Amino acid sequence: MADVVQQAHELIADRLDDFHRCWYFGPRFQYRPIVGYTSAPFKSKTLNIGEDGFRGGPFVMRSANRAPRVGCFGASSVMGIPNCADNETVSAQLARDLGCEVLNFGVPVYNSAREANAVLRGLLEFDLSVVVLTSGFNDFHTAAHGVIWDYEDIAGPSREAFDLNREKPIWHIKRAWRAFMKSRSRPVTKDRRQYEKQMSQRRVARIFGAHSAPPIYDYASRFFATHILVAADASARARVPFLFVAQANIYSTSKQLSAYEKAIKSELIEFGFDEERDARIEEFSKHYRAAMRSVVAAVRESGGAAIDADDILSTAGARVDVFHDSCHLTAQGCFILAQAIRRELAILRKP
Questions:
Q1: pLDDT digits (tens, 9 = 90+) for 192-222
Q2: Dihedral of the CA atoms 188, 331, 327, 306 (nearest 10)?
Q3: Regions of the chain where pLDDT drops below 70
Q4: From CA 310, how far away is CA 313, in angstroms rounded?
Q5: Count of beta carbons in the 10 Å neighbourhood of residue 28
């Protein structure tokens, strides 16, 4: 099964290599007053992030000639990392289909609270005609660990380590050596993937062994619903059509998994690798599906539009790879979802 994953990753090696350079050898994030944190600027063949921190940016704040503008909000799956080229993301494919500007406001690690704030800023500053918010996985897979992770959980420890060790030359030498050793191995090679898998297994084992905090799915459900409805209400007050897309993931999907998807699912780290893995996934899936159904219904009741991405992607069948990993879609998965969003937006834009 590992060969299936290896072959699939070799086909997108350029995309994975560009992401690897962006994520492991760059600053990852930047802080912008009022807006908060976004991705750090980056340029490469397949992955380009503007000075404003958004893929495909920088974006002009006002629409030229009041032309229609769609704002796509969410986390890394909306941004299209780690595996999609600039022209393969959902927003890029929507732009081609709709023939209008589609702004990709996806930022890695965002949860629903960050996304709701991004929608508020987008409505105020970017002259949007439609808001499309895709969300779900980041809130709930971290809730399995008894916490909802945020930007500071990623950037904070790294910054603190740098501040603590800035006067210690040996720390910088070790850091440079680790970066050099990573650069010597392509991230998609079999040996590299096996090494990362083993390291991830040990790390996750330590996490589950060191923390006994129970999952907080009930809290996550309230947290998530509150922020999605805040975004929907803000759009309604601005008289901008709002579409919520309940995010699909490989754990709770009703899709018949392809050979690749089965193989990659067995390697994913979110729920550990011990004998409790299947039980954790089952519990997560139960709460996730219930939460998505509830929020889809609530958004519709509030006057917005909502679709469940899993209902759409599950029609692809076992011959089509739509999941690259836990929640990030392949280029084909992005195409399928973009088509569904386009159809929904056509309904929203009817007078």
A1: 444 444 445 555 555 555 444 688 999 999 9
A2: 170
A3: 1-2, 34, 63-64, 149-213, 349-351
A4: 5
A5: 18
Q: How many whole angstroms separate alpha carbon 148 and alpha carbon 142?
A: 5
User: Measuring CA to CA, which residue among 303, 304, 307, 293 is closest to residue 343?
Assistant: 307
Single-letter amino acid, residue 31: Y
**Contact indicator for 133, 74 with CB cutoff of 8 Å:** yes
Pairing of strands 305-308, 242-246: parallel
> For 22, phi and psi rounded to 5 degrees?
-65, -45
Q: In whole angstroms, what is the distance from residue 20 CA to residue 36 CA?
A: 24
Taking only the tens place, the pLDDT of each residue in 9-18 is 999 999 999 9
Task: Render 142-188 in DSSP notation, one character per residue.
Answer: HHTTTS---HHHHHHHHHHHHHHHTT-HHHHHHHHHHHHHHHTS-TT
- Which residues fall within 8 angstroms of residue 15, CB to CB, at 6 or more apart? 46, 47, 82, 83, 84, 85
HSE, side-chain direction, 13 A CA sphere, residue 80? 30
CB burial class (10 A; 0-12, 13-18, 19+) of residue 285? middle
Expressed in percent and rounded to 5, the helix, strand and coil fractions of the chain are 55, 10, 35
Which CATH code of 3.40.50.720, 2.60.120.10, 3.40.50.1110, 3.30.1380.20 fits the domain covering 2-348?
A: 3.40.50.1110
302 exposure class (CB count in 10 Å sphere: 0-12, 13-18, 19+): middle
Strands 29-32 and 36-39: antiparallel
Helix (H, G, I), strand (E, B) or coil at 326: coil
Instruction: State both tokens at 112.
Output: 């629903």
Q: How far apart are CA 326 and CA 77, in angstroms?
A: 10
Q: Is 80 left (phi over 0), alpha (psi -120 to 50) or beta?
A: left
Q: What is the phi/psi pair of residue 55, to 5°?
A: -65, 130
